[in-house]
Write a structure and sequence with these properties.
Layout lengths: L12 H7 L2 H13 L1 H42 L5 H53 L2 H4 L2 H12 L4 H27 L3 H31 L1 H15 L1 H9 L3 H53 L5 H42 L20 E8 L9 E8 L4 E5 L6 H8 L7 E6 L2 E2 L5 H6 L1 E4 L10 H6 L9 H10 L3 H6 L20 H13 L6 E5 L7 H14 L4 E5 L3 H4 L4 E6 L2 E6 L1 H7 L2 H13 L1
Parallel strand pairs: 3-8, 3-9, 6-7, 7-8
Antiparallel strand pairs: 1-2, 1-4, 4-5, 9-10
Helix pairs in contact: 2-3, 2-7, 2-12, 3-4, 3-7, 3-12, 4-7, 6-12, 7-12, 8-11, 8-12, 9-10, 9-11, 11-12, 16-18, 21-22
The structure holds adenosine-5'-triphosphate.
């Protein structure tokens, strides 16, 4: 793993700080689109919970002043208190109780609606991420930076967007409280208000700076966290554990895992210590300002300028104002991080997808088959071409075999043919029309391909076949027909649940298959594509026994008589019947011809064929 260079702070930290807030609006829109009633509910509860504390403080003043007045009246009158004389005080007590109950209701409402929204929003964002993944090209998928964005986006998809909205609302709530406290406080002195605001500013700025640092760290280290996730997978997944045990890899991999943690933890610790030390020191300034104003109120009351009730109210306003201010600051610090998460999410969601310009559903020369004309290809980010100068023509009813050593470019040629990548030079035609002009769905309907690294779906056996043709995903008769052609029917019928047997180990009762059995499943999957007239098998029998292999090819030839077939194999016995054999060497066509022609030529093919024939004897 290469160590990326440390993050550099932006030239103007505050420009970055405010710039990133543009995502708050999008987060709110996202929540609005997720559930309007819940968003409205949240807004109402936020407003209520924001205004009522000031109302409670004001009622507190009225209570104390009413008590003082009632006490004076009783002292003068000398009578025992009656309901009539107590009512002016009690009604305020009752009102305050009501206000407190309303605050509790609003807070309950907030938390209930938040948890409902969290579930909905997490789901929505995950679906957005996965839908986008479905539109990305293979080349984009292989781009490690984009993959990082995807991983980061998915990791916190269910929490961050709502967290941002919650904090935005919390900020709104505390802001409303502060403004309403401010309105009350201005009655005492506008200067007191100013002192409090200025006192709180330094801690706010430090919070903003450190949040920015935290996010840069988070982005910069994402290759390391990805390696950590990968190591977790290797150490804890059934498909790798066998090899990890046998090679005794646990200590090695765990050592690497711990090493990454320690580096990351060290960085986290430094940041946390700096952030909290500064937070504490600057927070002291705010507290100092607060207690200065507090002392001022006390002195004014002693001097008789304020009533006891007013003093009670101001003290409450100070206490609650301070709490609201620091909660607001924390919300802003956290919001910044959530915004940065969202910036990552939207960067990912806004990745341009290749426009699918092609619309053709039939070629201009039906029956012309496949043509490669001067095709070359270089993988994105690579320097040397993997394929160059490829010319070939395959007509319906013909078979083509590709042979060549590992890494010579055979699979890549198939990836170009199936339009997983566009060629870097030259063109590929199907029925006389460039693949680029074809509607990609129409094109893919015509191709049935089984790659070497086919997918072993942790689904039922039948569904593992059904994925070959989504229109017949649940069609049991079609499964059976395909399984017969792929030679999978015999062993499937012996499985406990037949076509309904769960495969793989992820789910209860799942059954694991042997390598050859999986290959038969993959082969049958290719036969599910009834519409396909181009069949591509990339080493379809490497894991099969010799008898099965011979039978597979006999059936394949029978089934594909009027189709175009492309076969990649390292076993020369299986390719000899092809109408055309291409020997690929480092991305170029070295030899071409039928088996007999190539033997007569006595070149690379003939030499390798004789070598293999000797080995089989
Ligand atoms: N996704 C990729 N990105 C970059 N390079 C790749 C990618 N896939 C394959 N390559 C490179 O392209 C070359 C050709 O690979 P390809 O899979 O086409 O070979 P192949 O002939 O099918 O080999 P094998 O017989 O081993 O299956 C190899 O050198 C490989 O390293």
């Amino acid at each position: 793993m290469s160590a990326p260079s440390p993050p550099t702070p932006p030239a103007n930290p505050f420009a970055g700080f405010f710039g990133v807030f543009r995502y708050s609006r999008r987060a709110i829109r996202l929540v609005w689109e997720t559930s309007r009633p819940l968003t409205l509910g949240l807004a109402v509860c936020t407003l209520v919970a924001g205004v009522l504390p000031a109302v409670a403080a004001w009622l507190g003043q009225l209570i104390v002043d009413a008590v003082v007045a009632a006490m004076a009246a009783h002292r003068e009158g000398g009578q025992a208190p009656t309901f009539e004389s107590l009512w002016p005080v009690l009604r305020y007590v009752l009102a305050e109780a009501g206000v407190i109950a309303l605050i509790a209701l609003a807070q309950r409402g907030l938390s209930a609606q938040q948890s409902l929204l969290r579930a909905q929003l997490g789901h929505k964002v995950n679906v957005m991420i996965l839908e986008k993944a479905g539109q990305l090209s293979l080349a984009q998928f292989e781009d490690s930076e984009l993959y990082d964005q995807l991983t980061r986006a998915r990791r916190e998809a269910s929490t961050r967007p709502l967290a941002l909205v919650n904090k935005t609302f919390a900020l709104g709530q505390h802001g409303i409280s502060l403004v309403s406290f401010g309105v009350l406080l201005v009655g005492f002195s506008p200067w007191a208000l100013l002192i409090l605001v200025v006192g709180a500013l330094p801690v706010f700025l430090s919070e903003a700076k450190f949040s920015g640092d935290a996010f840069r760290l988070f982005r910069w280290r994402s290759p390391q966290t990805r390696m950590q996730m990968y190591l977790e997978t290797v150490l804890a997944r059934e498909d790798s554990i066998k090899e990890v045990r046998l090679f005794g890899l646990e200590p090695l991999l765990l050592g690497r895992y711990r090493g990454i943690f320690e580096t990351l933890y060290g960085e986290d610790r430094r940041l946390t210590i700096r952030r909290d030390s500064w937070g504490f020191l600057l927070g002291l300034l705010g507290t100092l300002a607060f207690y200065g104003a507090y002392a001022w109120v006390v002195i004014e009351t002693v001097g008789g300028a304020l009533t006891l009730g007013e003093m009670t109210m101001y003290l409450m306003v100070f206490k609650q104002g301070q709490a609201a201010l620091s909660a607001g600051l924390t919300a802003i610090g956290g919001m910044y991080e959530d915004n940065l998460y969202l910036s990552n999410l939207y960067e990912y969601l806004e990745q341009p997808v290749e426009g699918d310009a092609g619309t053709l559903t039939a070629g201009v020369l039906p029956g012309d088959g496949i043509r490669f004309e001067g095709v070359a290809f270089t993988y994105p980010g690579a320097e040397t071409p993997v394929l160059a100068g490829i010319d070939l023509h395959l007509r319906p009813g013909q078979s083509l075999a590709l042979v060549g050593e590992n890494g010579s470019g055979k699979t890549t040629l198939i990836k170009l043919l199936t339009r997983l990548y566009p060629p870097s030079a030259g063109r590929i035609l199907l029925d006389g029309s460039d693949l680029r002009d074809w509607d990609v769905r129409a094109l893919r309907r015509r191709v049935g391909v089984i790659f070497q690294d086919f997918v072993r779906y942790q689904l039922q056996v039948g569904e593992n076949l059904g994925v070959g043709d989504v229109a017949a995903f649940e069609d049991e008769a079609r499964w059976q027909a395909a399984a017969r052609l792929g030679l999978a029917d015999a062993f499937i019928e012996r499985l406990g649940g037949g076509y309904r047997t769960q495969l793989g180990r992820w789910f209860k009762g799942g059954q694991e298959l042997s390598g050859g059995q999986w290959q038969k499943i993959a082969l049958s999957r290719a036969y599910m594509r009834e519409e396909a007239d181009i069949l591509v098998l990339d080493e379809p029998t490497a894991a099969m026994d010799a008898a099965a292999e011979a039978e597979v090819f006999a059936r394949f030839r029978e089934h594909s008589r009027d189709k175009m077939t492309i076969l990649i194999s390292h076993r020369f016995s299986t390719v000899r019947a092809a109408d055309q054999i291409l020997v690929i060497d480092r991305g170029r066509i070295l030899e071409r011809g039928t088996h007999a022609e190539l033997l007569a030529r006595d070149g690379r093919y003939a030499r390798l064929f004789r070598l293999q024939a000797k080995g089989y004897r």
